[in-house]
């Protein structure tokens, strides 16, 4: 099998860098030494594991594709750029027949989906590339649909811990609130307890020091009205490796779909999880 | 609505007693003051909340039903007798057109199902009457079916704590092993760690003293190969109230089915959970 050609966009950003680092060690991938970047980035190149990546700012995208169209067309773009760049980049992928995996949030999702459906490409689009987290969300969505009111009368506590810089409440925790409500638990979005204090994170929760600057810990606790029954679900993620593997799995999945001749289709991580 | 007539069999056993206690406080139920009991039981009556229950040993079942057939026929039997008595009791329910909820384990399940299908009755049969636990098992079974290999490469630890007298490994924990295996986790039945030491249970795990003699605590931990991701699922049950409510919910569900004219049907707790 030929290696899967990928173009990782969003360097020198941390997610893009982590994906490049991992893909360079994996023979299944052939990483193109170019990366779309933001207009504010001053560097021209980024070196990762002795390989130089040329950064392509927005005003050079047109010129870049003219020079490399044939090469890039057979690649899968992996997008970890910036929420504000998503609309333009996705349009660029569509215009230039570049299949893509979109890990960046933001952008006009409806328009992106429509653009892919008109272009002759396929894409994996997901707000969360952590396969196991997406699987957990799907499990709860299933239970909420099949067993409404299962946790009727249960009270609920949700706590999440993220790096100090994260201002908003965990999107993953928020995404599960409607499920828990359908399951009958007495819980609301503003009940989510956010921990942002690194000292408490390390000493009380046990977040390793190494990951104080990049972690996503979530605990959902359900307690029966008479306090005799406790259910607790926890998913603690340190660093980025879960998202890196999920993204590369998405690229492999997309590559298979393309080889099978599929076009104009959008996949989610649920499709990747199902693997079919 | 008329109260649902129930005959709780298995007194003076703890589960039967707990169900009677709860049902006596609930206007939706009318508890018949008789209970099938074992041949070894010497008491003739049991008094619960000032109400006397006459115990009916096996050799008096025939005589009892002759005297009370009309009354008992319109009741739902709730069976928490003894594994060795299940086959005979279920046959007795079938022979006498008594719908039943079977919470007792043991017996020849295939034969019981066949007997119900031939008799003009309905039954709820489930090895676990804890609705939320059954729901959790169903969630995992769903994930295992839909997302095989989701936790590929993850190592797993399962710990369970039960009262000192329980010799065998938790059936709930065992029932989930094939699911976790299908999900790709590296785990086997003999990896389940059993805690039976009350001192450790109280001091290390935090089981309240009151429940050292009756609890079922389970924790399933999955850790990614690179140790950066942890998923943990816990369900801790103290005492019997979760099973009591589940059983009474099963009786209500069965009552509705009977009123709707259903016959010759077996339901599980999954049906009760789905409520349709």
TrEMBL record, chains A, B:
Name the UniProt record assigns to this protein: 4-hydroxy-tetrahydrodipicolinate reductase
Keywords annotated in UniProt: Amino-acid biosynthesis, Diaminopimelate biosynthesis, Lysine biosynthesis, NAD, NADP, Oxidoreductase
Pathway where it operates: Amino-acid biosynthesis; L-lysine biosynthesis via DAP pathway; (S)-tetrahydrodipicolinate from L-aspartate: step 4/4
Stretches assigned to the Dihydrodipicolinate reductase C-terminal domain: 136-273
Family as reported in the entry's similarity comment: Belongs to the DapB family.
Stored SUPFAM superfamilies: NAD(P)-binding Rossmann-fold domains
Recorded superkingdom: Bacteria
Enzyme Commission number(s): 1.17.1.8
Keyword Cytoplasm: no
A GO term, aspect molecular function: NADPH binding
């Amino acid at each position: 099998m030929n290696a899967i050609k990928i173009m990782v966009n969003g360097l020198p950003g941390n997610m893009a860098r982590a994906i490049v680092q991992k893909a360079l060690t994996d023979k299944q991938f052939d990483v193109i030494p170019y990366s779309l970047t933001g207009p504010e980035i001053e560097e021209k190149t980024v070196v990762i594991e002795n390989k130089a990546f040329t950064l392509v700012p927005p005003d050079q995208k047109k010129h870049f594709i003219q020079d490399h169209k044939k090469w890039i067309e057979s690649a899968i773009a992996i997008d970890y750029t910036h929420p504000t760049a998503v609309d333009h980049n996705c349009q660029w992928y569509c215009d230039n027949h570049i299949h893509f995996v979109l890990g960046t949030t933001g952008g006009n999702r409806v328009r992106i989906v429509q653009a892919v459906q008109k272009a002759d490409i396929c894409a994996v689009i997901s707000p969360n590339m952590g396969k196991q987290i997406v699987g957990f969300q799907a499990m709860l969505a299933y239970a909420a649909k099949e067993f409404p009111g299962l946790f009727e009368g249960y009270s609920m506590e949700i706590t999440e811990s993220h790096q100090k810089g994260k201002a908003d409440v965990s999107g993953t925790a928020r995404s599960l609130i409607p499920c828990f409500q359908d399951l009958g638990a007495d819980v609301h979005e503003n009940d989510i307890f956010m921990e942002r204090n690194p000292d408490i994170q390390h000493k009380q929760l046990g977040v390793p020091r190494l990951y104080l600057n990049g972690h996503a810990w979530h605990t959902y606790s359900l307690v029966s009205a008479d306090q005799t029954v406790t259910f607790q679900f926890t998913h603690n993620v340190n660093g980025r490796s879960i998202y890196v593997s999920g993204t590369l799995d998405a690229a492999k999945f997309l590559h298979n779909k393309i080889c099978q001749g599929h076009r104009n289709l959008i996949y989610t991580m649920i499709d990747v999880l199902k693997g079919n």
